[in-house]
Design brief:
Elements (H helix, E strand, L loop, with lengths): L1 H9 L1 H100 L8 H10 L1 H5 L2
Length: 137
Amino acid sequence: MPLIGVLLAQYWKPVALLALLAGAITYRAILLHQLSEARAQVAQLDAEASALRTNNQALGAMIGRQNAAVAELKARADAAANSMANNEAAARRAGASAQGQAQQQAQRLLQSAIDARSGCEGAIRWGNAQAVELSSW
């Protein structure tokens, strides 16, 4: 043991220098390993980013097509709603016209004279005289 102590006392500077040099070489090896791993990871992330950009562009194009389809459906739905509203308005006008004509015919029939004294025979004669107008109901 004393020999090791003597050697360390005399040669502590070269031993410390060797230990420092070994530590630096080990540190450099670790840094080089990490650098190569980082470069590989950067390459992988660049490839993933490129793939994501491509997917994003495809998604944007798909969204554009979907928006165009939705706009077309909305236009068709609006046209159908307008057509339905026009048909309803026309049907309402036709119904009002038919109702007005029916009311006019009813008023004419109500105002026409029926011979009530002759009973059923008078009503039948009146009905036969009005047959053309009554059949149009």
